[in-house]
Every structure is written in C-alpha cells, then in structure tokens.
Specification:
This protein is α/β, with parallel strands linked by helices. The chain has an eleven-stranded parallel sheet, with no helix packed on it. Strands 14-17-20-23-26-29-32-35-38 form a nine-stranded parallel sheet, with no helix packed on it. Strands 5-4-1-6-10-7-11 form a seven-stranded mixed sheet. The protein binds uridine-diphosphate-N-acetylglucosamine and calcium ion. Uridine-diphosphate-N-acetylglucosamine binds near residues 57, 81, 146 and 176.
Length: about 475
C-alpha cells in the first residue's frame, strides 16, 4: 500500500504533550524557534530525509496543529495523556497501513534533530536489520532523560530518569526521543506495554525490553551533535533554543558569503536563503522562506517575511511581507510592502509608502507618502508626493490600472476602479473618478480664484506697503 510505494518509510510525530510551563494558550509544539513552530522543524526535517508520509498524534486541545501540515497528513487524537507508548498506540491505523515498512517516531518538541541524523540512523537500522534503532547522544547533564543501557552492540533497555537507580543515572548516553522501528515489531510490542513504572505511563521506551525478551535487535545511533536532544519546557528553554538556532543560521550565512556587520538584534529564519555580498545590518529580521539575491543592503529595522528579493536591492528600514522585489529596486526608509506586492526591477519606493496587492512596473518611482492598493501600474511612471488609491468603497475592493510612462501629480486621489492610459498625466490635487486616455492630462480640482486686497481689508492693514 502507501507505505510500500514510498519505500516503506513513514514518520510518526508525537505532539499530544501539554506545555503548561510555557503558559501559552497554544499547544507547546507550536511554540516558535526563529518564528517557526517547533513541530514544523520536525515536519521539514522528515521531508528533507525523504519522508513525506507523516502522522501526527495530537491532544484534543491540539487541533490548531493540523493547519501546519499539508493535505494528506494523517492525524490521531490522544484523548488522555498517558505516555509516549500510549500516544503511539493511538496511531495504530496508520501503522497498520504501513505494515512491512519502517517508521520513524519522534518528539514534536525537539527541533534540532536533522535530516542527516535521521538518514544515518536509518542506514544503521537497515544494515543491522534491527527491530528498533534509537538515536542517542552523550550529554554532560543527563538529568531527566531516558538512559541507554547497552550490552555490547545491543541496547538492552532504556530506563527513564524517574525509574533509574544511581548506577543507571550515572550513564551519560541518553535517548533523544527519535527512533526507527520495524512497523510490524512496533505494533506487536505496543500490545505488550504496561504502565507499572514511576509515572504510571505507557512508555514507548519499554519496547526495548520487549525486543530484548524476544531476542530482536536494538541498535543505537549515537549522534555527535548533542543539540539533537534539546527541547524546551518553558520560555527560558525556548529562548535558549532560539539562541542556538540563531547562531547556527549565522554560521551558514557567513559560509555562504553574506556580510554581517554585527549580529546584534539580527534574526534570520532557518529557511531563508541569502546570496553572497548581501549586507545585513544589525536589527534586521528575516522570517519564513525569504530569498534574497546578491549585493543587497538591508538596513536596521527592516522586517522581511516570505518574500523574494532580487539582487542589488536596498531595503532601508522597511517591511516586506509575502511579496517580490526585482533587481536593483530601492525601498524606504519607512515603507511597507504588504502581501502580494510585486515590484519589477529598478522600482523606487521612497519614504512612507504603502503598497498592497499591486504590481509596479520597471523603473516606476513612488517616492513619498503614497498608498497604492489593488493596482496594476506600468513601467517608468512617476508618482508625486501623497498619491492615494481609494481602492475601498466601504463594501468592495476595486482595482486601478495605470499604463506605462504615466505621471501622477502630487496629492492625486485615484478613486478605483479607474484606468490611466500610457503617458497620461493627472494634475496635482486631482481626484480622478473617470478613466484618463493615454497622453491626456486630467485636471479634477476646483479652478483657482484670486481676490485682490481681500486679506488686507479683512485684517485692516497692509503687509505690503508698496502697493
Ligand atoms: C521522553 C523519553 C525519554 C527521552 C526524552 C527525550 C519516554 C517514556 N521517555 O521523555 O527517554 O530521553 O523523551 O526528550 O518516551 N507525548 C504525547 N503523549 C503523551 C506523552 C508525550 O504525545 O502522553 C509527546 C510529547 O508531546 C512530546 C513527546 O511525546 O513531544 C515526549 O514527551 P515528554 O513528556 O517530553 O517525554 P519525556 O518525559 O521528556
Ligand atoms: Ca521532553
């Protein structure tokens, strides 16, 4: 079935634990590291290891987690929190559908496991034909973790900290919470788990005892990277994870030729891609799957999220969300590109400009204090200061269309829907409510009236005695 088709690989992510100590309304696994929920790190590591067939065990309070996975992901709901073994039991249907294959089981709250470790552990698992392969690490302080009890090559038991005596507590090799299981072995072992232990829970780790009793092989893949075990139980722990992840991203950026002046206040998403010779100032925040080309300058206070930025772009203290920016564009200071804004190469966006759901053609300039929403703007247009698109009539959003080489005078209001042809002009201060043909000038404002001496009479004195 499904399991066989994908090479028999699937993943089961345990995410039904509660995160009381986070003091969050959200499920713990949705707490974020570098703006990315912890469980999404796990989701992506599995994908990177080639495992797209995933099942997530959630609690009844964890419904929100579903939205972070693609369609076709399986979910199992654990009604009561009765341990990691019990959590896996809830996914029995998923396991049955993958009989004959191998399943990766991992914790939803340890974001630093990685694709390579998952693959290396699988290689060992298959080579050794193991029933279980547990990913372990040697850590300085093993307190709280399950200890790995070895008898030569084999792992004979994993003993939880709460159940361990002093001799076992002295072991520094610990269970990371990530395992490969033969699916058929796992299904059988689950039916043999009890909950006679210090916490009265069904421990997934007791499947090791089941294997030992049955003479099946249990192997450990000991990772050199101790961070793989790290999770967060409270906000202090979460901050620590953020700091570790942040440093790691910097290392990658520096290796890739990105220029960092200082890392103060700089936060870059693990999923961002930035090309060489781009400079990030301190205090820049890059979120989500942002891509930035080479030779760009991004200055302090800029926040860029899920956007694609070309090469040689300047973003000066501005915000860009779910938008694209062509090569050589300049943005800011203090401007904002809201979702679905698309700037062609060479566009200039100056200060205090907001663009939303609009396309702006090559080399068009919107230099000051303007709002462009729901519009398609051609190339080489010039927007004077203070242009506003009135795109919302209180009920509907309407679009404006502006051709190439148009000149929009200062303080023009474009009351959508309205279109301006190529080379059209609008006079400063016009409120444009009708289409303007190409090469025409539209003046839509009251004609100026001058009343000589009116103010002198009003004041009772002259300012200008010459007259
Ligand atoms: C578990 C392991 C321990 C290991 C450690 C690594 C067991 C018995 N112990 O301990 O050996 O060193 O992880 O971090 O497996 N969960 C559920 N339902 C439950 C309980 C937990 O879905 O009823 C999920 C949690 O959301 C979490 C994961 O399982 O993602 C691990 O649970 P947690 O309570 O943190 O396990 P530990 O006691 O830390
Ligand atoms: Ca834990």
């Amino acid at each position: 079935m499904n399991g066989q088709q994908s090479g028999g690989l699937s993943a089961l992510i345990l995410a039904a634990g509660n995160g009381k100590r986070m003091r969050s309304k959200k499920p713990k696994v949705l707490c974020e590291v570098l703006f990315k929920p912890m469980i999404c790190w796990i989701r992506d590591w599995c994908l990177q290891a080639g495992i797209s067939d995933q099942c997530v065990v959630i609690s009844p309070e964890g419904e929100e987690i579903r939205g972070h996975f693609p369609q076709g992901t399986a979910f199992a709901v654990q009604q009561e929190r009765r341990g990691t073994g019990h959590a896996v039991m809830q996914a029995l249907d998923f396991l049955k559908a993958h009989a004959g294959g191998d399943v990766l089981v991992l914790n939803g709250d340890a974001p630093f496991i990685d694709g390579e470790t998952i693959q290396n552990a699988l290689t060992l698992h298959r080579r050794e034909q193991a029933a279980i392969t547990v990913v372990t690490a040697e850590v300085e302080d093993p307190t709280g973790y399950g200890r790995i009890v070895r008898s030569r090559k084999n792992v004979s038991a994993i003993v939880e900290h709460a159940d361990a005596d002093d001799a076992i507590r002295a072991i520094h090799e610990i269970n990371s919470g990530t395992f490969w299981f033969k699916v058929d072995f796992l299904m059988d072992a689950l039916s043999r788990l009890g909950c006679d232990n210090a916490q009265g829970e069904y421990y997934l780790t007791d499947t090791v005892k089941v294997a030992t009793r049955a003479g099946a092989r249990v192997r450990a893949y000991c990772s050199e990277n101790c961070d793989i075990v790290l999770g967060a139980n409270d906000r202090r722990g979460l901050l620590k994870l953020n700091e570790i992840a942040r440093r790691r991203v910097f290392d990658r950026l520096l290796d890739a030729g990105v220029n960092l002046l200082s890392t103060d206040g700089l936060i870059v998403s693990p999923d961002a891609r930035i090309e060489p010779d781009t400079t990030l100032y301190p205090g820049v925040i890059i979120k989500g799957k942002t891509m930035i080309g080479s030779g760009c300058t991004i200055t302090s206070g800029s926040v860029i999220e899920d956007s694609i930025i070309g090469s040689s772009v300047t973003v000066n203290c501005s915000q860009i969300t779910r938008s694209t920016v062509g090569d050589g564009a300049r943005i800011g200071p203090f401007s904002q590109l809201r979702p679905d804004s698309h700037l062609a190469p060479g566009v200039k966006i100056g200060d205090f400009v907001e663009i939303k759901n609009s396309t702006i053609g090559e080399k068009t300039s919107v230099a000051h204090l303007s709002y462009i929403g729901d519009s398609d703007v051609g190339a080489r247009c010039n927007f004077g200061c203070g242009v506003a698109v009135a795109n919302y009539d209180g009920l509907h959003k309407n679009r404006c269309v502006i051709g190439n080489d148009a000149f929009i005078g200062c303080n023009t209001n474009l009351v959508a829907p309205v279109s301006l042809g190529d080379g059209a002009y609008t006079a400063a201060g016009s409120t444009i409510t009708e289409d303007v043909p190409g090469d025409a000038l539209a003046i839509a404002r009251a004609r100026q009236v001058v009343k000589p001496d009116w103010s002198a009479r009003f004041r009772g004195s002259r300012i200008n005695p010459e007259k």
